[in-house]
Amino acid sequence: xxxxxxxxxxxxxxxxxxxxxxxxxxxxxxxxxxxxxxxxxxxxxxxxxxxxxxxxxxxxxxxxxxxxxxxxxxxxxxxxxxxxxxxxxxxxxxxxxxxxxxxxxxxxxxxxxxxxxxxxxxxxxxxxxxxxxxxxxxxxxxxxxxxxxxxxxxxxxxxxxxxxxxxxxxxxxxxxxxxxxxxxxxxxxxxxxxxxxxxxxxxxxxxxxxxxxxxxxxxxxxxxxxxxxxxxxxxxxxxxxxxxxxxxxxxxxxxxxxxxxxxxxxxxxxxxxxxxxxxxxxxxxxxxxxxxxxxxxxxxxxxxxxxxxxxxxxxxxxxxxxxxxxxxxxxxxxxxxxxxxxxxxxxxxxxxxxxxxxxxxxxxxxxxxxxxxxxxxxxxxxxxxxxxxxxxxxxxxxxxxxxxxxxxxxxxxxxxxxxxxxxxxxxxxxxxxxxxxxxxxxxxxxxxxxxxxxxxxxxxxxxxxxxxxxxxxxxxxxxxxxxxxxxxxxxxxxxxxxxxxxxxxxxxxxxxxxxxxxxxxxxxxxxxxxxxxxxxxxxxxxxxxxxxxxxxxxxxxxxxxxxxxxxxxxxxxxxxxxxxxxxxxxxxxxxxxxxxxxxxxxxxxxxxxxxxxxxxxxxxxxxxxxxxxxxxxxxxxxxxxxxxxxxxxxxxxxxxxxxxxxxxxxxxxxxxxxxxxxxxxxxxxxxxxxxxxxxxxxxxxxxxxxxxxxxxxxxxxxxxxxxxxxxxxxxxxxxxxx
Amino acid sequence: xxxxxxxxxxxxxxxxxxxxxxxxxxxxxxxxxxxxxxxxxxxxxxxxxxxxxxxxxxxxxxxxxxxxxxxxxxxxxxxxxxxxxxxxxxxxxxxxxxxxxxxxxxxxxxxxxxxxxxxxxxxxxxxxxxxxxxxxxxxxxxxxxxxxxxxxxxxxxxxxxxxxxxxxxxxxxxxxxxxxxxxxxxxxxxxxxxxxxxxxxxxxxxxxxxxxxxxxxxxxxxxxxxxxxxxxxxxxxxxxxxxxxxxxxxxxxxxxxxxxxxxxxxxxxxxxxxxxxxxxxxxxxxxxxxxxxxxxxxxxxxxxxxxxxxxxxxxxxxxxxxxxxxxxxxxxxxxxxxxxxxxxxxxxxxxxxxxxxxxxxxxxxxxxxxxxxxxxxxxxxxxxxxxxxxxxxxxxxxxxxxxxxxxxxxxxxxxxxxxxxxxxxxxxxxxxxxxxxxxxxxxxxxxxxxxxxxxxxxxxxxxxxxxxxxxxxxxxxxxxxxxxxxxxxxxxxxxxxxxxxxxxxxxxxxxxxxxxxxxxxxxxxxxxxxxxxxxxxxxxxxxxxxxxxxxxxxxxxxxxxxxxxxxxxxxxxxxxxxxxxxxxxxxxxxxxxxxxxxxxxxxxxxxxxxxxxxxxxxxxxxxxxxxxxxxxxxxxxxxxxxxxxxxxxxxxxxxxxxxxxxxxxxxxxxxxxxxxxxxxxxxxxxxxxxxxxxxxxxxxxxxxxxxxxxxxxxxxxxxxxxxxxxxxxxxxxxxxxx
Lengths: 738, 738
Known about the structure:
Strand content of chain A: under 5%
Strand order of the largest sheet of chain A: 2-3-1-4
Family (chains A, B): Belongs to the CSC1 (TC 1.A.17) family.
Number of strands of chain A: 4
Helix content of chain A: 55-70%
Pfam families (chains A, B): PHM7_cyt, RSN1_7TM, RSN1_TM
Largest interface: A-B, 45 and 45 residues
Number of helices of chain A: 36
Keywords (chains A, B): Calcium, Ion channel, Ion transport, Membrane, Transmembrane, Transmembrane helix, Transport
Radius of gyration of chain A: 31 Å
Mean pLDDT of chain A: 76
Oligomer: homodimer
Membrane topology (chains A, B): Multi-pass membrane protein
Shape of chain A: globular
Low-confidence stretches of chain A: 131-137, 275-289, 713-738
GO molecular function (chains A, B): calcium-activated cation channel activity
Structural class of chain A: mainly alpha
C-alpha cells in the first residue's frame, strides 16, 4: 500500500501527463490542418468552412501566430461560456443532459467531501488503532480512514477487565482515574462510530435531495424541450408492431382499415417499414455502393425489386394521425385484447429508428431476451475462460506454428520476452475494447426498435459488467466466477462484510485507478488521437472531392453506452468511500470537474449526435446512481459489523429501505415524463398550431418522414454516382447554408 | 413419524368425521327452518320464498319426508350439474373463476400423481437405503419417498474402494463378479436420480401447459363476459384521482373544464366522490341510523350539510364519457405531464368502490405503502412477540388480578390445568382468526380504491404469512424470526439444502395437516355452523318483520383474501412433494375434488358476492402458483445436492430460469386483459349499441350511478324509518320479482 507521499507523487505525475495531453491538444487544435478534427461540428452545421485558399501556403497548414499559443487554455472558459439554452439549441437535449451528469457528480460528491473532511477526517485521525498496531503495514491514508477507529469489542473487553485490574491494585486514586479514563475512551470510540452512522444518514439525505432536484429539473427541461420543439414527424406518429397477417388484405390495407375503424376521426396515413426480410441485402447494398461503382446498377435493380415485392414488407408500420393528441392516445392505449398484436408505441424520431428490429414477433422477443440474459450472465462471470483459451493459443509456439517465417525474429531474446510479457495483456485489452460492441450486438438481438433504447440497454449491461469485474473484482481477488462461488457459499450477511472489510484497504488502488483511467482517459478524449490520425491518413490517400473530405471527417458522438457506466463507477467510488476513506473524494471531484469542461467542449465543437431522444436516458442514470448508493450503504453496514459495534448495523438498516422507497417514489413521480407524452401537453401544442397554421397540409409534411434510409433520395447512404448533378448541388447547398 | 398404517387410520378417522359433517349438513339442510341458512342466495334473488304458512305446523320447521333423507348426498351431483355459462349468469364470473382454481388443482396435481405413482414410487421403493440403515427410525412412507434412494457419494466411494478390496483377495472370479455388480449398482443409483430429474422437468412442463391453457381460457372467459355484459355504468366511467385544487374554480367546475378541454368530443358528465373529509361521520351515520331511531333526524340534517358543504367534496371524481371507447382511452392515458395528478383508472363497478380511499394524495400513498410493507415484515417475522406477551398476561395470576371474584373457581385443580393448557393456544388461535382482518386493515391503509383490489392485496399478504409461518415454519422448527436469523447467517445455497433436506421427513405431518385443516375445514364450510346459530338466535330474539328476517340471513361471500392463499398452500405442498414423496398427492387431490364440489354448491346456493370484478384476480393466482413451483424446484435442488450427486444441481438449474421466463411470457401475453379494456372491443360494443339503441339517453342512465351509498335513496344502508312506505314496497317488490 502506498502512503500519502507516494500518492502525491503519483498524482503529480498523472496531473503532469494530463497537462501534457492538454498542451498537445492546445497546439494541435490551433493548426488549420487539424481544424476538421477538432471542430467538425461547425463544419457539419455549415458555419465553418475549410481554411481559405488565399494566403501563404504554410499558414494553410500551420498556425504561425505565436499569440494564440499563449492562451492555450482558452478553450476551457470558452467551453463553459455558452449558456445552457443555447447549448440545447446547438447540440440537442441529449448532450446537455449528458454533461449534467458530471455536474451532478460535483453537486453530490462536492458537499460530501467538504463534510467528510470537516467531520470524519478529524474523527478518524484521532483514533489510535493503527498507531497501536505497529507490526501491521499501515499508511497515512489509512490513518484518515475508518480503519483508524478502534474496534468496539476490544475496547469494551478492556473496559470489562478493568474492574478486575482495579481490584488487584486496590483502588488507588490512580486506578480510579484510569477507570474513569477508560470509560470515557470507550464512550468516545462509540461516539466515533455514531458520528460515522449519523454522517452516512446526512450523506444519503443530501444525495436524495440533489438527485430529486436534478430529476425534477431534467424532467422539466425535457417537457420544455418537447413543448418548444418545432413540428416533427414523430410527434404525429406511432410505431405499430406485430400487425397480425390478414388472408384477404395486404398489410398496408389491413393497417389502413384497422385504424380507420378504431381511430375514425384522427387517422391520417401510414408507412410500412421495409427491412425485416431484406435487411441484410440492404446493408450489403450500402456496403458495395460505397465501395464499387459497377454495382450501383445492380443496386438500383435490387431497390426496385424490394419496393415492388409484397413479401419484403414487414408487419410493422408508422401510423400518423391528424393531431398530436390522437397520436399520444394511440401510443398509450391497447388496441386488441391480445396484447401481443397491434403493439403501439410512440415512434422514435426518424434518425433514431433501428430498422432491422421492427418486425420481430412477440414470442421471439421473449425468447431472445431470455437467451441474452443468460448470455450476459455467462459473459460477466465466465468471460475469462475464452480469454484464457485465446491467451493459451497466442503464445510463442502458436505464432511460430501459424507464421513459420517469423520464427527467427521471434526467437530473438528481447522480442520473445516482449511477446511473452505483453501478449496475454493485449488479448485482454482487445476483449475490453470489443466489449461495448459485443454488448451492443446483444442488445440488438434483444430486438429494441430505436438506437436510443439500444444505447440505454447496452449501458445497463456494461454497468453490470463494470460493477462485477472492475469494482468487486478489484476488491476481491480472483475471477468473477470464483467470487460468485464464494458468494453462493457464504451467508448473505457475510458478503457485505467480506467486501466491506477490504474496502478501506483498496482506497489507494482506486485513487490510482481514478487518476490513470479517469484523468488520463479524459485528457485522451479531448486529444482525439485516433480520429486525428485517421483523418490525415484519409486526407492523404483517399480524399479527392470536397465531399470526400466531408466524409473523412469523423465527428463521432457521445457514446452513452460506454461513457455513462464509467461515470457510474466513479459515482460508486465516491459514495462508497465518502464515509470510509474521504481522501479519495477530491480525486473523484477533479475527475468530474475536468470531464465536465472537456465534454462541454466536445459537445460544442466536435460531437454530432446521431439521434435526439430528449434526455430519455435520465431514469436509467438515476436508477443506477441509487444502486450505487445502495451498494455503498450495504458495504458500510458490512464494514461496521466487522468492527463489532452490534447496534451500528441496526442503526443503518433504515438507510437501504429509505433508498429503495426513494427510488419507487421518484419513479412514480417523474419517470412517465420520459416515457409518455401527456394528453394535456399534446392538446396545448395542437391548439396552438391550429391557431397559427390553419391551412397546414400535414399529409404532405409526413409523406416521406419514415422511409428506410436506402430508399431516400438524399440520404448520405446514397452512392453519389447515382445522384444527378443538380441534386448533388442542392445537397451541398443545403448543407452549406448558414 | 407415523407409518403407513397410522396414516391410514388417521385418514379413515378424518374421512369419517368429514362424513359425519356431511350427514349433519344433509339433515340440517332439509329442515325448512334452516332453509334461509343453506339457500340464502335464492332468497336474495327472490326465487325462493319462506316456507308456505299453510299445512301442519311441524312441517314448517322439520322435514318429515323420510325419502329425502335417503338421497342425502344428492346435493353433490346437483352442484355439479349447472353448466358453466348458466353459473356465470347465476353467480357472476368471479365465483366461477374462483372455483376453477380447485379444478385447476385437479388438472395440475392429478396427472402429476399418476406419473409419480407409475414412475417415481417404484424407483424409490426399490432403493435400499432405509432398509440398510436399521438404527434410524423410518417408515413405509419414507420407503416410497426419495429418502429411500441411496446417497450418490457413498456408493461411488464404495465403488472406488472396491478395486483395493479386489486386489487383496487377488481377483477371484467372485470379486470380478462383485466388482461388476457394484458398477451396475452405482449406475442404477445414478439412473434413479436421473429419473427424478427428468420427472421434475416433466412435472414443470405439464404445470406450464395446464397453467398456460387455463390463463388463456380465463382471459377468454373474461373477454367474453365483458363483451356480452349488459350496459353498465362502469363501462363509460373513469375514476379520476388527485385532482389538483384550483384557486378560482370549485372542484366540480375544474373537472368539467379540464375534461371539456382534453376530451372535447366525448366528455359527458362527472360525479365527485363524497366521503374523504366526512368519511368517519358518514360511517357514524350508518351505525347510529341502524341502531337508534331518534338520531335519524340529525342524520338527515347532517346529510343535508354534507351535500351543501364544498369542503366535503374530495379531490376525486367519476368522469363519464359518451362512449366506451372514449372511457377506455381516458383510463389508459396520462393527462398531465405530472403523473401524480389527474390520475385516471378504469372505474370499479359502483358496488366495488371503496369510498374512503378515493382522495389520498400521491405522496401519502407512497409513504403509506412503505410503512405497511415494513409493518407486514414485522407482522410476519415478529408476530410471536406480542402474542407471547399477551400469553404471559393471560395466565392464572393475571386473571385473578383482573377478576378477583373468579379466584375460588380458578383455584380448582381441574379448571386451573384447563386454563394453563388451553389459554396460550386460544390466544394464538384468536390472533390467527383476526389475522385476515388485520391484513385487510393494512391494505385499506395502503389506499386501494376498490374492494376487489383490497381483497387481492390482502390475499398477497396472507399468502406470504402462510408461506413463512405455516410452510417454512412447519419444516424448520423455531419462530419465523429465528428462521430469518438462521437464513441470514447461512450461504444462499445452504437454505434450499436445509429446507430441502427436511422436506421428506415432514411428509406425514403435512398429510395430517391436509386432512385436519383441509378436509375438515371444507366439511365445516358447507355445514355453516356459525351462520346457522346466529340466524336462529336472531330469528328468536330480533326478527319482527319480513325485512328483519331478510337481514338476519347472512349469505356471506367467497372470502377471496383468506381462501385463495390457503389453496396456494395446498398447491405448494402438491408441487413440492410430487417429486419427493408422491404418497402425499392423493390427499391433496381429495382436498381439491371435495372443495370443488362444496364450493360449487356454496356458490350456487349460498354466497352472495358483494361485487363483480370479472375474474380480475387471476393474474395473482397464476403468479402465486408459479412462486410455488419455483419454491418446489429450489427445494428439490437443495435436497438432491445433499445426496451428493454433483451434476443434479446443474441439471436442474434451467428449471427455475424457465419458470421465471414462463411467468414473464404469460404476464406479457395475458395480464393486460385483466387490467385494460382494449379499444377494439370498446369500439365494437359502442358500434353495436349505437345501431340497436340510437336514442339512448346516456346522461340520464349514468345520473346516479356513482353516488355514495348513504346518499342513495334505495340503499340498504338507509334506515327503513326514513323511507316512505311506497318506496319500501317497491324495494321489496324489486327484490322479489323472479
